[in-house]
Amino acid sequence: MTHFYTIGLFLKPLEHDFGWSRSEASSGLMIVSAIAVFLSPFTGALIDRLGTRIFGIAGVLIYCAALASLSLSNGSLYIWWATWLLLAIGSLCLKPTVFAAAVSTHFKSG
What we know:
The longest helix has 24 residues, at 27-50. The protein has six helices and no strands. It is 80% helix and 0% strand. The chain has helices spanning 2-18, 22-25, 27-50, 52-69, 77-92, 96-104. The N and C termini lie far apart (36 Å). By secondary structure, it is mainly α.
């Protein structure tokens, strides 16, 4: 996802502008990783139960809104973490499992 590849560009400006340490500035990645580890099995079960379309659409909307909301950070570490939590939920709904399940449902066995 985009946030993993671009966070390195923003670490120094975040540290400088908000007075955060490097670990505080990059703590959002830990939130995304922890959410993915603990909630992915439940998300897979919900995908099987509810279908992939709801997860794909919700994931795109939540992820894009949360990624854009990162630009509105005002230096509060709690708001930073809450925004990363929303980004983690959106990212969870956009895992490859969602799209693999969508494609695999179009194939029927012999």
